[in-house]
Amino acid sequence: MATIYTPKQQRILLIVSLVIIAGFILVGLRQYTIALLGSGIIYVIFRPWFTNLVHKRKWNRLLVTILLILFSVIVIIMPFMALSLLLINRIQYYSQHTDQILGLISKLEKATGIQITDQANVKNLVQQGAGFASRQFPSLLSGTLDVVISLGLLYVGLYFIFMEEEKFIKGLRKYLPFEDDTLDQLGEDLKNMVNANILGQALVSLVQSILTGLTLWIFGVPDAAFWGTVAFFFAFIPILGTPIVWGPAGILMISQGETGSGIGILVVGAIVIINVDNLLRVILARRMGDVHPFITLTGIVLGVPVFGILGLVIGPLLLAYFVVLFKVFEKQNQRLRLEAAKEHEILEQKAKRAV
């Protein structure tokens, strides 16, 4: 039976149908987007190991896949969940005991001579901040099912990417609207972005958090482990970073009459922690690639409201990759303009010869 649609109409309707169905799928999986992105990110991180063991050393693919998945759970997922739970518990504690925060702020005001705000506003701000911070972390206490589903999707996706790597890459090359050399460039840029934004930044943040926690502990600041954990997440933010933690801590110690400890914290923070941060960033920028601080800061602002605390790394990664895609688009347009100019020049030469 003949169809009422022309071939062009059929093509348009097919594209529209695909877009609508894809939209329903994305809406249905919107809360698990992080898991799907996580599969790709972890694959990029561990792909060199996978390539070396499976393709070069000819190890069993299934065995390597299982080992890499277990390694990522132990090294990435479990520490992150432990840090999140520690931070959530302490945030909830301080939100219920705002008198301690108010006392610290009062001492800070006396030490600096700056009136921050009245106590009612501070109490309200602390409670709102605690609620916001708690929502940004995946909590095993408040969302066990969501966490299990997200981790399940992440590792099922990662398993199939590793086990069917050739089909996965072939499918990307087939369906992405880029030429082979462009895809190679995008793949290399993605690897550099992941290394710089995740591996490099996580390493810098970890070193800074350890140094901050040890400094506060040595100089007698209460709850040094908690503030070291806070410093880990703040270290992802360019320019501000860990001074948000050890700066007020040093001032508060001075305000409490412990001048030596307070000055010690400020000196170690300004000389050791900041310089270690700068040194590590220079070294890692040479080895893993560098990302402009503006991209990182803007990516965090965009990423955290959408992806929660993981937006600290996913936000800058997506923004940096958007910049890469824009450069590829610009490069392709430039090449097309050059090709069009050459064709126009050839046509003009032919016209002159004909005359």
From TrEMBL:
Keywords: Membrane, Transmembrane, Transmembrane helix. It comes from the Bacteria. GO terms for cellular component: membrane. The chain crosses the membrane at residues 12-28, 34-50, 62-88, 140-162, 198-219, 225-251, 263-284, 304-329. Belongs to the autoinducer-2 exporter (AI-2E) (TC 2.A.86) family. This is Putative PurR-regulated permease PerM. PANTHER family: TRANSMEMBRANE PROTEIN, TRANSMEMBRANE PROTEIN 245. Its main location: membrane. It is found in: Membrane. It is a multi-pass membrane protein. The keyword DNA-binding does not apply. InterPro entries: AI-2E-like (IPR002549).
